[in-house]
Specification:
The complex is a heterodimer of chains A (120) and B (106). Chain A has no helices and 11 strands. Chain A is an all-beta fold. Chain A is globular. Chain B has no helices and 11 strands. The chains are: A mainly beta (120), B mainly beta (106).
Chain lengths: 120, 106
């Protein structure tokens, strides 16, 4: 059973950089896509992007200028950096495994989520 | 971007009811449609992928159908633990998007 756990600061000041890490356990880190998804309080879900175990990335175009994803395969971790944050970036941030097949793709394992508040 | 429209936004139901949730997409996504269940304070849980394939260990009272632009999630014999918010999500385009959710409440 794959398990994911987000970690990082719960409070970030406006204009600063949000940095989160997701630690994966219980499964193979390589051979998978790993995604970040966020959910503002009381609202819907927004896919931020993924990183493949090779290091290739794909970002949501609406955030591409501010987002960087990276990984450390030796620690089975992948990370999110979101620069120049505003209050609109306040959300619960989830990491998830993005499983891709020949004719389907879905998020099958999720972390518990971490609330990040942008405030001074 | 592919727009996702779920209806209704919320519905009231009783234990034992059969409920049907709808998801419509702004363009043809074949069967690249997934359904998730989310309870308050919890991460979403995958229920159905590929429009109609039930994820492992998901009760058989859940079923998904549809293709193209019109999709449905049906819950037969609603159970107390099924009261939650349900999201659809498309994986057809490079920009993965979610619907706004349908809240199923008593």
């Amino acid at each position: 059973q794959v398990q994911l756990q987000e970690s990082g600061p719960g409070l970030v000041e406006p204009s600063e950089t949000l940095s989160l890490t997701c630690t994966v356990s219980g499964g193979s880190f390589t051979g998978s896509f790993w995604s970040w998804i966020r959910q503002p309080p009381g609202k819907g879900l927004e896919w931020l992007g993924f990183i493949y175990y090779t290091g290739n990335t794909k970002y949501n175009p609406s955030l591409e200028s501010r987002v960087t994803m990276s990984m450390d395969t030796s620690k089975s971790q992948f990370s999110l950096q979101l620069r120049s944050v505003t209050v609109a970036d306040t959300a619960v941030y989830y990491c998830a495994r993005q499983l891709s097949g020949s004719s389907t793709e879905f998020f099958d394992f999720w972390g518990q989520g971490i609330l990040v508040t942008v405030s001074s | 971007d592919i727009q996702m429209t779920q209806s209704p936004s919320s519905l009231s139901a009783s234990v034992g009811d059969r409920v049907t949730l709808s998801c419509r997409t702004s363009q043809n996504i074949n069967n690249y449609l997934n359904w998730y269940q989310q309870k308050p304070g919890k991460a979403p849980k995958l229920l159905v992928y590929g429009a109609s394939t039930l994820q492992s260990e998901v009760p058989s009272r859940f079923s998904g159908s549809g293709s193209g632009t019109e999709f449905t999630l049906t819950i037969n014999t609603l159970q107390p633990e099924d009261f939650a918010t349900y999201f659809c999500q498309q994986s057809y385009s490079a920009l993965r998007t979610f619907g706004q959710g349908t809240k199923v409440e008593i």
